Amino acid sequence: MSGTLAGPGAAVPLFGHTAERIAPSPQAEAFYLEVLRELLSTGLPFLVAGAYAVSAYTGLTRTTKDFDVFTTAGDFPRILAHFKARGYMIEIEDERWIGKVRKGEHFLDVIFASANGTMPVGEQWFAHARQVDVLGLPVRMLSPTELIWSKVFIQLRHRYDGADVVHVILKQHHQIDWRRLLSYMELHWEVLLMHLLNFRWIYPSERNHIPQWLLAELLDRLKHQLELPPPQMKICRGRMFSRIDYQQAVDQWGFADVGGEGEWRDG
User: Fold this and answer.
1) Does the pLDDT of residue 141 top 80, yes or no?
2) How far apart are CA 90 and CA 209, in angstroms?
């Protein structure tokens, strides 16, 4: 599937929706175009994500101060080394999942795992990617399935991507591979259930966008879980959402931290 994502001042259709200019300034947009050309020149696989992908799949527009791409853990150092050799500032923000390429006030986020560092980008991401034009360049973009996966754990006090999940479901439910999404979320199926119930509550007239078999499967799991005793150990998985917001549970309230150490940037 192919389409076009808008350049300066344009508004053109993509996947049946309209994506308008979302860069905060011509200077930022010029930087995004520059780094995309550099990425393409490497020949290394990467996928456009973030605000550009949300805009492409939903038609929602908003300003963004960065540009997100996903790659594999193996190609992550290759991409950063390429930019470093060309004079860009490089930052390893968290070696478990993210690095940055900076030029002045603008930056590119290079991501190879979930924000909590526990779930890496895999081959399926590239196998199911969409071919699109971004700022006039042919690139690959996360599919709606992987875009949802990339956002379900972003739940901080100052950053919550649940609305993005809801709107990707609303506009792209027919393009989501629900079985593949469930396979990604198998260990954390309750988080998927949270987002599906959230969607049903927000858009009750569109409840049928969620496959009945999927909701029945998750509710059946919940039913059987209710028949089991809770874990004997005091556990907090909240730090998979936000390290800061659940720090006190680990430091002062005696809960074991089994949720990872990652933290999403404020952007």
Assistant:
1) yes
2) 42
Looking at the structure, tell me whether residues 21 and 131 fall in a common domain: yes
Q: Which domain holds residue 223?
A: 152-255
CA distance 104 to 82: 18
Q: Taking the CA atoms of 43, 47, 51 and 57 in sequence, report the sign of the dihedral they define.
A: positive
- The whole-angstrom separation of Cα 104 and Cα 100 is 12
Distance CA 267, CA 74 (A): 25
Q: Tell whether the torsion through CA atoms of 123, 143, 151 and 46 is positive or negative.
A: positive
Give the mean pLDDT of 186-204.
97
Strands 106-111 and 98-103: antiparallel
Q: Residues 60-101: pLDDT tens digits?
A: 877 766 799 999 999 999 999 999 999 999 999 888 889 999
What is the model's pLDDT at position 209? 98
The secondary element (H helix, E strand) that includes residue 151 is helix 144-151
> Do 96 and 55 fall within a single domain?
yes
pTM here is 0.86
